[in-house]
């Protein structure tokens, strides 16, 4: 069963919301509104109504420094109580949230702060996923899987076990089309754009016996 991804939007900080990306995804979005957002744009409301069951609105009824941030953190705590295996995202450019993200990770929770929807792994299209994987491959040049099945397992781990079988296939095709990997009919994987780390110095020739 795919892991549910919970996205908490700091609406005081980020108003660009690409909701069509959540269609058909294991995603729930909570829009956290401050006192300055008593009225929402009609176009945004129409978009919100297209995704019943995936969208929630939370109003911050208190004023003061970091009021919205604290309410958002509380909402994450509530969601985590219900679904401790979920993946919790904060959509905000406010780096103050990084302390909360770090705390959650220290407790073994899947968590991340992103500045836009297109940075959230589960919401990427196939080409975006391929680019994300290419960057990940560069970090682990000596641990790259050489068989398709193991590559697929690595992909699911990277994307929080949120990809459907069709999305896995699409991502593999994108990796091949982008010439990031090569794939044989037997499922053997080669990596075409990944550095293999520093070259080993040539072995020195042993001294000849006199």
Using brief descriptors, characterize the structure shown.
two-stranded antiparallel sheet; 7 strands; 16% strand; 210 residues; 34% helix; alpha/beta; Rossmann fold; five-stranded parallel beta sheet; Arc Repressor Mutant, subunit A
Descriptive report:
The protein has 210 residues and is an alpha/beta fold. The protein has two domains: 5-122, Rossmann fold, CATH 3.40.50; 125-191, Arc Repressor Mutant, subunit A (Orthogonal Bundle). The protein is built from six helices and seven strands. It has helices at 42-49, 67-82, 98-106, 126-139, 148-158, 165-177; strands at residues 5-10, 27-33, 55-59, 87-91, 110-114, 181-183, 189-191. Strands 3-2-1-4-5 form a five-stranded parallel beta sheet, with helices on one face. Strands 6-7 form a two-stranded antiparallel ribbon. Strand 4 (87-91), helix 3 and strand 5 (110-114) form a beta-alpha-beta unit. Helix 4 (126-139) crosses helix 6. The longest helix has 16 residues, at 67-82. The chain is elongated, with a radius of gyration of 22 Å. Residues 196-203 have low confidence and may be disordered.
Question: Can you tell me the CATH topology of the largest domain?
Answer: Rossmann fold
Total number of helices: 6
Q: Helix coverage percent of residues?
A: 25-40%
Q: Any idea what the shape is? A: elongated
What series of H and E elements makes up the topology? EEHEHEHEHHHEE
The pLDDT mean sits at 89
């Amino acid at each position: 069963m795919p892991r549910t991804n919970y996205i908490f939007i700091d609406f005081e900080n980020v108003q660009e919301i690409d909701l069509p990306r959540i269609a058909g995804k294991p995603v729930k979005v909570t829009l956290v509104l401050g006192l300055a957002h008593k009225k929402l744009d009609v176009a945004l409301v129409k978009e919100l109504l297209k995704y019943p069951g995936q969208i929630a609105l939370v109003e911050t009824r208190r004023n003061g420094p970091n009021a919205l941030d604290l309410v958002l953190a509380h909402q994450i705590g509530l969601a985590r109580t219900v679904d401790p295996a979920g993946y919790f995202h904060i959509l905000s450019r406010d780096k103050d949230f990084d302390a909360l993200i770090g705390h959650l990770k220290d407790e073994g929770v899947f968590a991340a702060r992103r500045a836009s929807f297109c940075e959230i792994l589960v919401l990427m299209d196939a080409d975006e996923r391929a680019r994300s994987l290419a960057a990940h491959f560069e970090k682990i040049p000596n641990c790259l899987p050489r068989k398709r099945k193991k590559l697929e397992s690595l992909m699911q781990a990277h994307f929080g076990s949120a990809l459907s079988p069709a999305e896995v296939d699409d991502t593999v095709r994108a990796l091949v089309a982008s010439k990031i990997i090569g794939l044989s009919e037997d499922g053997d994987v080669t990596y075409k754009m990944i550095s293999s780390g520093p070259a080993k110095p040539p072995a020195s020739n042993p001294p000849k016996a006199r």
